[in-house]
Amino acid sequence: NDVRVMTNDPDYRWHLKNLNMYVGLLPNAPVENDAFSVKTEVGQVPQVWSQGFSLLGLPGDFSPASRFVRMFYLRRYAEVHDPVTSVDDAMVLATGLLNNVFIPRGAVAPMQPAKSIVDYDFTNWGLIKIPAQRRFIFRDYRSMVWKEIDLKQLKWDKERSIPVSDGSLGIEQVTGKLKGPMEELI
């Protein structure tokens, strides 16, 4: 897997060729194009007026093809602008990338009329593996809190399992950690 992005539909070679459709995406902010600008009552147009336009044209829907393209370009651009130098950096980048392709339940219409909520396509869980450290890190749909299994600590003599989800939202109550003048507000 040369591009380091996985997919399930359509086949991998199709996705590789499809990346060529987005060759115009640039890792740098756009610059003013004075050759085409016009002075108007609202000022010179067109002009760069904010940030984030370097990825204008990046697909934003939840189709497998669009998510593959987003993962490829976002990962590559992040590596160009802020190279990963540690496992922690890699975890933060992987989390951001997975958040970008997370599908909320009900956001994608079913192929046929849905009979129940389970008929809708959604992101059941997220997974990050760190093979060199034998770490398996996962989260479930309801909770964005990562859980980790250190595979080095397991005995492999019998089959074991744990539920992916504990049903919680993973929200930590931190009100008690507030100190000083803020206590008076509580």
TrEMBL record:
Sequence ranges assigned to domain Choloylglycine hydrolase/NAAA C-terminal in this UniProt record: 2-157
Keywords tagged on the record: Hydrolase
Positions of transmembrane segments: none
Tagged with keyword Lipid metabolism: no
A single GO molecular function term of this UniProt record: hydrolase activity
SUPFAM superfamilies: N-terminal nucleophile aminohydrolases (Ntn hydrolases)
Organism domain of life: Eukaryota
Family listed: Belongs to the peptidase C59 family.
UniProt name for this protein: Choloylglycine hydrolase/NAAA C-terminal domain-containing protein
Phylogenetic lineage: Eukaryota, Sar, Alveolata, Dinophyceae, Gonyaulacales
